[in-house]
Automatic annotation (TrEMBL):
<feature type="transmembrane region" description="Helical">
    <location>
        <begin position="106"/>
        <end position="123"/>
    </location>
</feature>
<keyword id="KW-0472">Membrane</keyword>
<dbReference type="Pfam" id="PF07786">
    <property type="entry name" value="HGSNAT_cat"/>
</dbReference>
<feature type="domain" description="Heparan-alpha-glucosaminide N-acetyltransferase catalytic">
    <location>
        <begin position="8"/>
        <end position="230"/>
    </location>
</feature>
<feature type="transmembrane region" description="Helical">
    <location>
        <begin position="81"/>
        <end position="100"/>
    </location>
</feature>
<keyword id="KW-1133">Transmembrane helix</keyword>
<feature type="transmembrane region" description="Helical">
    <location>
        <begin position="130"/>
        <end position="152"/>
    </location>
</feature>
<feature type="transmembrane region" description="Helical">
    <location>
        <begin position="222"/>
        <end position="243"/>
    </location>
</feature>
<protein>
    <submittedName>
        <fullName>DUF1624 domain-containing protein</fullName>
    </submittedName>
</protein>
<feature type="transmembrane region" description="Helical">
    <location>
        <begin position="172"/>
        <end position="192"/>
    </location>
</feature>
<dbReference type="InterPro" id="IPR012429">
    <property type="entry name" value="HGSNAT_cat"/>
</dbReference>
<keyword id="KW-0812">Transmembrane</keyword>
<feature type="transmembrane region" description="Helical">
    <location>
        <begin position="48"/>
        <end position="69"/>
    </location>
</feature>
<feature type="transmembrane region" description="Helical">
    <location>
        <begin position="9"/>
        <end position="28"/>
    </location>
</feature>
């Protein structure tokens, strides 16, 4: 039978607010990195990766906590499905939007996708024995770190999380281990339910403006999650285009990488500079930035890269060009 919901715990809303602010900060810095306003690569820097994982951990724990707060006394199906459809719809919008903007690394199973699926999978554990909830949580997390198979490198299966090398995606939050993290949130809140600690948490109310704002953000965290990136990009992208930050930094990255690789082969620095400048002009001319930086090279792209390499090699090794001419004339 459906039961009325207990009063909201303001402290949980504040925690969600802190998490959404942290995520907005991370995404702001990721955008600034991607559009080359800052030199650090936020997507791969160990410190930033750890920061992103800690934010995700907080969100997924709070998913489990929220399930217990909303439905631990009995399923409120109307409220559950209303929220679930909103999350699933948001996940679909993110997939569609990133498909058009980042077709080679679009988000096919990101944070909202994971929240939608794990919310369903976690429902039985609102009512199972506590020991079973904890055991399954540990098993789900443990399997992620103890099993891997090349099969899960493919997008079709990667959402499960047992890959050896994940496929390219701007956000990928697999069921294993994150379902286990959601179950940890379920377990923690069920242990608190009906105790003096819950009463103390319920009595704790925000007294400062900052706490009230964070609480408000926590209550609207899903909406904020959906709109904050488009708003950030609406400012950063035009600014990057006006300042030329991405193009300038991208060119320098290409030239530095090419120069280092070329000199390692024993070619002089001066000849390498000529070769790499030629290569840069060819990449720009043939619009090959995406395959160069992602490594996803089609047969047509590879043909263009090979032709450009031969042309640039002939600049620094003239004999190569004459040999090719003689060969083609035979």
């Amino acid at each position: 039978m459906s039961q009325p919901a207990r009063p909201r715990l303001a402290i949980i809303d504040i925690a969600r607010g802190v998490a959404i602010v942290a995520m907005a900060i991370y995404h702001l810095c990721w955008d600034l990195s991607y559009y080359r306003f800052i030199p650090v690569d936020v997507g791969y820097d160990p410190g930033w990766v750890a920061f992103a994982r800690s934010i995700l951990f907080a969100f997924m724990v709070l998913v489990g906590v929220g399930l217990v707060l909303g439905h631990g006394d009995g399923m409120r199906w109307r409220a559950f499905w209303k929220r679930w459809l909103f999350i699933a719809g948001g996940a679909g919008l993110i997939t569609l939007g990133t498909w058009f903007t980042f077709p080679d690394s679009f988000v096919y199973f990101g944070v909202l996708h994971a929240i939608a699926l794990t919310s369903l999978l976690a429902l039985p554990f609102l009512f199972t024995p506590l020991w079973l909830t904890g055991l399954v949580a540990i098993a789900v997390i443990g399997l992620h770190f103890s099993f891997a198979n090349p099969l899960f490198n493919e997008k079709l299966f990667s959402w499960l999380g047992f890959w050896e090398v994940p496929p390219p995606a701007n956000d990928l939050v697999p069921v294993f281990p994150w379902l286990g993290v959601v179950l940890l949130g379920v377990l923690a809140m069920r242990l608190v339910r009906g105790t003096r600690l819950e009463a103390r948490l319920a009595a704790s109310q925000p007294r400062t403006i900052v706490a009230r704002v964070l609480g408000w953000m926590g209550r609207w965290s899903l909406v904020i999650y959906l709109v904050h990136q488009p708003l950030l990009l609406a400012v950063i992208v035009p600014l990057s285009m006006a300042m030329g930050t991405q193009e300038t930094s991208r060119d320098m990255d290409f030239l530095n990488s090419c120069q280092a690789s070329c000199e390692e082969s024993g070619t002089t620095a001066a000849l390498c500079a000529i070769y790499c400048q030629c290569g840069l002009e060819g990449v720009k001319r043939d619009d090959l930035w995406e395959p160069v930086f992602t490594g996803l090279v089609s047969a047509a792209d590879q043909a263009k890269l090979d032709a450009n390499n031969r042309q640039c090699s002939a600049l620094i090794y003239p004999d190569l060009n004459s040999d090719q001419s003689e060969s083609s004339g035979k």
